[in-house]
Design brief:
CATH architecture of the largest domain: Distorted Sandwich
Keywords: Calcium, Glycosidase, Hydrolase, Signal
Catalytic activity: Hydrolysis of terminal non-reducing beta-D-galactose residues in beta-D-galactosides
Family: Belongs to the glycosyl hydrolase 2 family.
CATH class of the largest domain: Mainly Beta
Helix content: under 10%
Distance between the termini: 71 Å
Number of strands: 64
Cofactor: Ca(2+)
Protein name: Beta-galactosidase
Length: 931
């Protein structure tokens, strides 16, 4: 079957020189012709035959590039591949393509950017070369002598998903991630002159020293080489500089020094182009190649830190699989761009390619937008043999060597290290970048995974080595990632031996199962659970990370008496002065449209300096509810928006509850209960326990009952007495230090507003939550509106990231990371409550106000899946709706909540004397009127 041919210049800067970029077109540039698409969005149909599994045993067509399982072929396999049956299918590809007649006499290579796993390639029925083994690496064959020029040619590729090389299976197929088959990255032809540049390796240092090793297939007719450095817009920067060479030479070095180059780093990712040209004895260009690069220097100072351009850096990083639910590991430029932009939006500065090299377009974008990259040779608890590993390592470095974003190499993962390859990283890499062994101490860098916050033994915390956990805070549904990060980051930030770390993981690795009606499958709880959902939906931790890792740090500040608009801030950039940022502010009255805005000059603060941001607010700023301050980086993108409430909960409560006038409250005593009427509201309170039994208004029942029940304490209200205070009814329990030391007071106002005040003592010295519960039917709940921090729920160890405001949330039963996903989740803990309105399906509603600051409310109990180690398990009070002065943290997949830092530990309340003057006090106002 003959397919429509795809022509075009590729994105691989390592290979291409756009025609006419620096003047008239040159005849001796590398010419490129794609045989596949450049990614998942423009794939090309090839003929295909699968030997086993779905749609096997027949010739049909398939997208190239693709993972064949996602195209409906073969069998799905999730990691740990140990048997001899599953995952053994093969795929046979055929594709007809034309080769221009004018390519005759040139060297023509066929290039594969990635194939799962063993590939045998034929051109016109003849082998192109030896079988390639190893999935994630670029390989090529010289097929010049096998082609029919100016005619049609047949490409045949046989792909074995399971490698014949057992070490490849150990390194790649027994990993803890999805395994795929197929030609999953692009395929193209490149045509080069007979004498040409095969590859170039650049070392451009921060001091302006530029060195390049230029590798040639031969120097026939070529006698010297030149280099010329350009800005990306084509403007000349430096050169030309040249070197002569003798006949037979296939490697030469060019070098120069330029003055004060603009350096590459994640905050200012300055890039240059360099053009290398081979010349013959007549002074004619034999071949020219363009490379993109950046000036930067990476240095490890033992017992000190990792330095980039002389600056000690801390990695704010994330692990990232190349993955998308519908295409597996086959991505495209747009998908990679979105990933880098999202990582940058979380104020991260680093990414680890887990657990294999990414496709090149991802690295190109990391170069241009600015991310430190740890690039990793595949290996997960198993490793390549030395011969195979050396070959694949060279393929990885040869293809990726010039990316300035790559600052660290990783030799396998979690025991998948072949120590015999360590010296080859240095031998193959002109820049001699540092090498790490993820999960081990190697080269003075301790990368051990998932250490507890208080892990202080040996060399991890009290030692002298550089600390860089390549995986920490293992995500599990809503645990990990943002939960625990604030404690870890405080410790990392102030520990001079810390070089930061990498969260696990970027996004959920849920794959569409073509064999199971397109369900999303995570292989139970084994596939990576990310900060983002499978389709990159943003979970609550996304915003927590964004605030915790903000390079502009605001000290905690309350707007109280004497506030003069001053905020203490710290510059946590590595290279950027705060004066290059932009700050705006907004005063807002949340209940209406009253808004006032302004901007403020950014202070002159160098990295690591502390100073003050001074806002000039209007004299009447107190009439507003909240002050928002937004910091935008030099790129004009938002760093974060901080919220500073001006009104207190009591201010809002008074404005909302004290203006209604109504007739005197009436009540009767019957059946051991107070039956009370206040305007249109009727309620009953148990005379013995003081608990709310029923509530009705003009519209009908409000089933908010059986409270307040003290959680993490004893509900021992006793001996109730009542009195009328003017038109208001007060019902109060009697304090007794031994038997009824918790006190409940109900105040029912003529307006129908009901005040509840509880003075109480937790039963234990430390407790997961502190507060009171009520019952309310979940199946009658439609939505809530509230004033507080939102819209995401919180945990004790994940309080940051939300914004103070008024929020509306429709009921959902979403379990974080499980489909169907509706974010933000409805159920769970919510912080800084000012008021809450619960809306019922029958159009009834009730409101709750408070005088307490820093109060949490809890909506029902979310579903969650237990994990085998019982680390993740969140803790919730009994009842349905709670009002709490302390909540619980949440664990990760590998750590209990209380092992992730002080914030995660139980709430502590120490008072065994039950002195009523030291009791916790909780005050709520209920408006049951339905108005």
């Amino acid at each position: 079957m003959k397919n429509r041919k795809r022509f075009g210049i590729g994105i691989m800067a390592a290979m291409l020189l756009c025609c006419g970029f620096f003047g008239k077109a040159r005849a001796q540039e590398t010419e490129v012709k794609y045989l596949s698409g450049k990614g998942s969005s423009d794939a090309v149909k090839w003929d295909f035959f699968c030997t086993d599994g779905m749609n096997s045993g027949k010739w049909t067509t398939i997208d190239v590039p693709s993972c064949w399982e996602l195209q409906g072929f073969g069998k799905y396999n999730y990691g740990f591949q140990k048997d001899s049956v599953r995952g053994m299918e093969k795929g046979m590809y055929k594709h007809e393509f034309d080769v221009p007649a004018e390519w005759k006499g040139k060297v023509v290579n066929i290039v594969f950017e990635g194939v799962f796993t063993d590939a045998d390639v034929k051109i016109n029925g003849k082998k192109a070369g030896v079988q390639h083994q190893g999935a994630y690496y670029v390989f090529k064959y010289d097929i010049s002598k096998l082609l029919n020029y100016g005619k049609s040619n047949l490409l045949e590729v046989t792909v074995a998903k399971h490698s014949a090389n057992e070490s490849v299976n150990q390194a790649e197929r027994r990993g803890d991630f999805w395994l795929f088959g197929g030609i999953f990255r692009p395929v193209w032809l490149e045509a080069l002159p007979e004498a040409h540049i095969k590859n170039v390796a650049i070392n451009a240092k921060a001091n302006g020293q530029f060195t390049a090793n230029v590798y040639m297939n031969s120097n026939k007719n070529a006698v010297y080489a030149t280099g010329q450095i350009y800005h990306l817009n084509g403007e000349k920067v430096w050169g030309p500089f040249r070197t002569n060479f003798k006949k037979g030479t296939t490697e030469v070095q060019l070098g120069t020094n330029i003055e004060q180059p603009k350096l590459w780093n994640p905050e200012t990712p300055n890039l240059y182009n360099v053009v290398f040209e081979l010349y013959d004895t007549k002074g004619e260009v034999v071949h020219s190649v363009k490379k993109r690069f950046g000036f930067r220097t990476v240095e490890v100072k033992q017992r000190d830190g990792i330095y980039v351009n002389g600056v000690k850096v801390k990695m704010k990083g994330v692990n990232r699989h190349s993955f998308w639910p519908t295409t597996g590991r086959t991505l495209n430029y747009e998908r990679n761009l979105a990933d880098v932009q999202t990582i940058k939006e979380m104020n991260m500065n680093a990414v680890r390619n887990a657990h294999y090299p990414s496709d090149e377009s991802f690295l190109d974008i990391c170069d241009s937008l600015g991310l430190f990259v740890m690039d990793e040779l595949a290996g997960w608890h198993g490793n390549y043999d030395t011969v195979t590993g050396a070959k694949l390592l060279k393929e990885m470095i040869d293809f990726n060597v010039n990316h300035p974003s790559i600052v660290i190499w990783a030799n396998g993962n979690e025991g998948g290290h072949n120590f015999g390859l360590d010296s080859l990283f240095t031998a193959y890499d002109i820049q001699k970048r540092p090498v790490v062994h993820p999960w081990q101490l190697f080269g003075g860098i301790e990368t051990q995974h998932y250490r507890e916050y208080n892990y202080g033994i040996g060399n991890y915390d009290n030692g002298r080595e550089i600390i860089l956990p390549t995986e920490f805070l293992h995500g599990q549904y809503d645990g990990g990632h943002g939960a625990g990060l604030e404690d870890y980051w405080k410790h990392m930030w102030y520990n001079p031996q810390s070089a930061g770390g990498f969260l696990w993981d970027f996004a959920d690795n849920a794959v569409v199962r073509k064999d199971k009606n397109d369900i999303l499958d995570t292989d139970k709880d084994r596939a990576a659970d990310g900060i983002l959902g499978a389709y990159h939906e943003r979970e609550g931790s996304f915003y927590t990370i964004k605030e915790v890792w903000s390079p502009v740090f605001f000290e905690r500040r309350f707007i109280a008496e004497g506030f003069d608009g001053t905020f203490d801030i710290e510059n946590r950039f590595h290279y950027t002065n705060i004066k290059d940022c932009n700050f705006t502010w907004e005063l807002k009255k949340l209940a209406d449209t009253l808004v006032e805005k302004g901007s403020v000059a950014a202070p002159d603060l160098k990295p690591l300096e502390r100073g003050r941001l001074k806002l000039k607010l209007p004299d009447d700023y107190k009439k507003y509810d909240v002050l928002y301050i937004t910091a935008n980086g030099p790129d004009k993108k938002e760093i974060f928006t901080w919220s500073f409430p001006i009104s207190t909960p009591k201010d809002i409560r008074i404005a909302k509850t004290d203006s209604v006038k109504a007739p005197k409250v009436t009540f009767t005593l019957a059946d051991s209960a107070y039956h009370i009427t206040a305007g249109t509201v009727k309620l009953s309170i148990n005379q013995t326990t003081g608990l709310l039994k029923s509530v009705t208004n003009a519209k009908g029942d409000i089933p908010f009952v059986n409270g307040p029940i003290i959680d993490s304490g004893v509900t021992n209200f006793k001996n109730f007495v009542h009195k009328m205070v003017g038109d208001t009814l007060v019902i109060e329990s009697t304090y007794d230090k031994k038997e009824s030391y918790n006190v409940l007071r109900w105040t029912i106002y003529p307006s129908g507003v009901v005040k509840m005040k509880v003075e109480y003592f937790p039963a234990h010295y430390h407790t997961p939550y502190i507060g009171v519960n009520f019952n309310f039917p979940e199946d009658q709940t439609a939505s809530v509106d509230y004033m507080g921090n939102g819209p995401y729920r919180v945990w004790k160890n994940r309080l940051k990231g939300n914004k103070f405001g008024i929020w509306h949330k429709d009921y959902n039963n979403t379990e974080t990371g499980e489909y169907p996903i509706i974010y933000p989740e409805f159920k769970g803990y919510h912080s800084n409550m000012y008021w809450l309105q619960v809306n019922m399906k029958n159009s009834q509603h009730f409101k709750v106000f408070t005088d307490n600051e820093d109060l949490f409310f809890r909506l029902f109990t979310p579903a969650w899946k237990d994990d085998p180690w019982h680390n993740y398990n969140p803790k919730f009070p009994k009842g349905d709706i709670s009002f709490l002065q302390g909540i619980s943290g949440i664990g990760t997949k590998t750590q209990r909540a209380d092992y992730t830092g002080p914030m995660s530990r139980y709430n502590v309340f120490y008072d065994y004397e039950k002195d009523v003057t030291r009791a916790l006090q909780l005050t709520l106002y209920f408006d049951f009127s339905g108005k």
